[in-house]
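User: Sequence in, structure out. Go.
Assistant: Echoing your sequence, followed by the structure tokens.
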Amino acid sequence: MVLLIHHSVSPQSRKIRIMMAEKKMLFVLKEEEPWNLSPDIRKLNPAGELPIFIFDGNIIAGNYPITEYLEETYPEPKLLLGNNRQKAEIRRLCDWFDNKFYNEVYRYIVQEKVYKRFRDGLPPDSRVLKAGVNNLKFHMEYIEWLAERNNYLAGQEFSLADITAAAHILVIDYLGDIAWEDYKNAKLWYSKIKSRPSFKDILSDTIKGIFPAKHYTNLDF
């Protein structure tokens, strides 16, 4: 049996959960608060980061190693697909959201609204939130541009790029910080993505003490 140590506020954890659901894998979840990790987590992953994938006594830590392992071990359906150029584009977009979006949006919005509240018992800094929302606009415009030109973000087929982007967007959307009315094509893409069966359990996740935006679980909003 596969055990995934995760938290619903972690986009990297959501990414792996969606991947496993797409590949119809059976797995068990164990939740760890990323702002209050237990000492055992660093024994499993010296970086002290989620998610952590455990199976048959083996441990894989970090979303990129887990992603590659899942794609190589469970090749159907392919999520890193196409020729070498197409795979490079999928990887580029995964890196964009896992690093650029994470550092420019997630750290400003989610860490202020969630981490700071539970770790420090403090309210968010409005100046930090404003910077995060301004950064978010740039990224939403980029998603809008991609969605206008392609059926999916990296091309005409659903791929790991869509999963990665959606995993990050879902957390921000839960907190109600996306003005979807300004991004018609991005909204259509997002509605199409979160209507997939693999997103059902993710959409039912809640963050303790924080209610999701009213439209969050609506597939056609």
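User: And one key feature?
Assistant: The chain has a mean pLDDT of 96.
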